[in-house]
Amino acid sequence: MKQYEKLLSGLYKILKVLLTVTFMVMTAALTIQIFARYLFKKGWPWTDEVARYGCFLCVYIGASLALFTNDHIHVNFLEGITPKGVHRWLRFARMLIVTVYSAFMVAYGPKVIALGRTSVSPNMGIPMHLVYMIFPVSFALVFLYALFNTLCYLLGYPQPSDKEDAHSEGKEAEQK
């Protein structure tokens, strides 16, 4: 389990860099578009596509990163009305659902990619199946991180976010 966490932590760092670079490219493309429209009264069409595809990448890669650190928004209504001993099992059930769903999306991914095999993006001429690859690849990442979280909850293994939660709960208890 330690090796799996180490692998995912390394992947997390690489994906954070990819996310940062993508966001910077997206910001630069939008800035170029704004100045081109302002100065030349005509924008460059490629900037819209760069920003759009960059946004897709940021959202889907960011979703997998948030899953690793348990930073996703989740409804904890059941955790509020059940005993503390049940919370781990509720989290396990939530992660199991995410794991199964992401596995389904990875399996369905080739069909999504096939939709774009014959088309290209209108401005840059990028084959759309390359753009559509974002979806199954990102869901594969979600699957890896969700599987890790599921196993952690099942085996009682501490997660990075659990350590932070325990620290913040301790601070709250001290303040009371």
Please, could you describe this protein's structure?
This protein is mainly α and 176 residues long. It has one domain. It has 7 helices and no strands. The longest helix has 39 residues. It is elongated, with a radius of gyration of 20 Å. The protein starts with a helix and ends with a helix. The relative contact order is 0.13.
Quick summary:
The chain is an all-alpha fold. It has helices at residues 2-40, 45-68, 77-81, 84-115, 128-132, 134-155, 160-175. 81% of the residues lie in helices and 0% in strands.
Q: What order do the helices and strands follow? A: HHHHHHH
- What is the total domain count? 1
Q: How can the largest sheet be summarized? A: none
Overall mean pLDDT stands at: 85
- Count of DSSP-assigned helices: 7
SSE layout:
Layout: H1 2-40, H2 45-68, H3 77-81, H4 84-115, H5 128-132, H6 134-155, H7 160-175
Q: Which structural traits does this protein have?
A:
about 180 residues, disordered C terminus
